[in-house]
Amino acid sequence: MCGGSASCLYLKDYDMITIIIVTYNSEKFIRNCIDSIQKKTKRTDYEIVVVDNNSRDNTAEIIYKEFKNVRLIRNRKNVGFAVANNIAIERSKGDLIMLLNPDTVLENDAIGVLSDFLSKNTDVGCAGSKLLYFDGTLQLSCRRFPNFINVFFGRRSILRHMFPRNPVSRKFMLENMDYNCTQDVDWVMGAAMMMRRDMIEAVGSFDEQYFLFVEDTDLCYRIRESGKKVMYVPESVIRHYHGASVKEGFSRSQLQHNIGMYKFFKKYSIQKNKAFGFILYCTILLRLAVVFFVDQFFFIINLVRSKSLREFE
């Protein structure tokens, strides 16, 4: 019994969960994603809202024809991840907001697990699932907040590839974290995260200056700044393809990620120091250039190798 404490008002079953999926050319994944939600989610009081960012494939048609109980919002252009989620949040009904990428499949009642966790932990503002690749291996889905050093040691950084066991990357990527235990982390990936609606109303929804990437980092930063925790919950298990809506190698996604990082630092760290901002801007341009030329190098190497194999055969 709670003994009449005011906090007991929050220890309840929420009326509804809104599950938001933002799609862009996701026809290969969206069926399995929605099917897994409907099969694995034990609660019946949820809605699925799909926001399609003007896909050029059959994503929207699949949803419209095959999933009549899914609400579909079709944008006339690709407005990005942050804007699309904000559109869905504004038009949704749930007390809890679950963000889910289209290239995911629920392994268990992952959404219900997060819902129960948030209802029992009022000091938590955001909860993220345990993510696995489709081959069953662990996906590092939590991070520390980026700073001016560790940002160059991220998942696809050259330094991490050259020195895969370096301590900066391992600390930034939380590679040493026990992913079988519930953990208090800086931020979780927006591929599978749940928040209370009143939490979003308190800190604001996604910052729409981010087109793709870093918007989840920014939102978790504001949640933690408000005094609430961001938690990793391993009992909620989801498989995630990772990167299904973006091209491999150097692409616009790389550009957007680096632009997002610059905006994050500008928003929270640079402040009025224009000289420092200029240095950061130049450094990120250098990072982009290095990634581009390394990607091109390996592309050429693989092309030559493939040609050699064909000639050998």
Chain-averaged pLDDT? 83
Q: What fold name stands as the CATH topology?
A: Spore Coat Polysaccharide Biosynthesis Protein SpsA, Chain A
What spatial form do the alpha-carbon principal axes imply? globular
Q: Please, how many domains?
A: 1
Order of helices and strands: EHEHEHEEHEEHHEEEHHEHH
CATH superfamily: Spore Coat Polysaccharide Biosynthesis Protein SpsA, Chain A
Secondary structure category: alpha/beta
CATH class: Alpha Beta
Task: Report how far apart the termini are.
Answer: 74 Å
Tell me roughly what share of residues is in helical segments: 40-55%
Number of DSSP strands?
A: 11
* Rg on CA atoms, Å: 20 Å
What low-confidence regions span 5 or more consecutive residues with pLDDT below 50? 1-12, 244-250
The tally of helices reads 10
The name of the CATH architecture is Alpha-Beta Complex
Strand coverage percent: 15-25%
Q: Biggest sheet, in brief?
A: 9 strands, mixed
Features:
about 40% helix, about 325 residues, two-stranded antiparallel ribbon, single chain, Spore Coat Polysaccharide Biosynthesis Protein SpsA, Chain A, 9-stranded mixed β-sheet, 10 helices
Describe the structure concisely for a colleague.
Helix content is 41%, strand content 19%. The chain has 313 residues and is α/β, with parallel strands linked by helices.
